[in-house]
Design goal:
Layout: H1 2-21, E1 37-41, E2 44-50, E3 57-67, E4 82-89, E5 91-96, E6 99-104, E7 108-111, E8 117-121, E9 127-136, H2 143-146
InterPro entries: Cupin_2, GPI/OXD, RmlC-like_jellyroll, RmlC_Cupin_sf
Keywords: Metal-binding, Signal
Organism: Rheinheimera mesophila
């Protein structure tokens, strides 16, 4: 019986690994800012570094944004992915769940799936922040979060 259970577990693991391996996964590497894809918008530049799925994530985005004074990349928004934002230069205002909170260098925001969030530059010099967001593979969305889905 033990061998049967072990065989089933191993078979399931290989099946899961097979389906993951079928996707083009992000290799380990270093990307310089000069190599990052730069998107210019009204008052900002967004440098996109890694966007491919990894062994444990999908819908990933890592990048650095530079926002000019008085600007934002977009208004507060929601999405299914978890997200971290870290201010590394400048100051501004976080928006988190419809509340405005001062943002300064060294601060980090975590936004759970479907929580409204954003940042705008209210300072007098460029605001620079790092962003990392992703959706974990194989993890179900908790019912209370799925119910909040728009």
């Amino acid at each position: 019986m033990f061998k049967l259970k072990l065989g089933l577990v191993a078979g399931l693991a290989f099946t899961c690994l097979d389906s993951v391996a079928a996707e083009p996964l992000q290799p380990s590497q270093i990307v310089t800012q000069a190599q990052a894809k730069a998107e210019k918008g009204d008052g900002y530049v967004f440098y996109s570094y890694f966007t491919k799925p990894t062994f444990g994530t999908q819908d990933a985005l890592t990048g650095v944004a530079v926002i000019e004074p008085g600007k934002e990349i977009h208004p507060p928004h929601i999405h299914a992915e978890e997200e971290y934002l870290m201010v590394i230069e400048g100051e501004g205002v976080w928006s988190l769940k419809d509340k405005d909170i001062p943002a300064k260098a060294g601060d980090i925001l975590y936004a759970a799936p479907w929580d409204s969030h954003g940042i705008r530059n209210t300072g007098n010099k460029p605001l620079k922040f790092v962003v990392m967001k992703w959706h974990s593979k194989g993890l179900p969305v908790p019912a209370e979060l799925a119910a909040q889905k728009p």
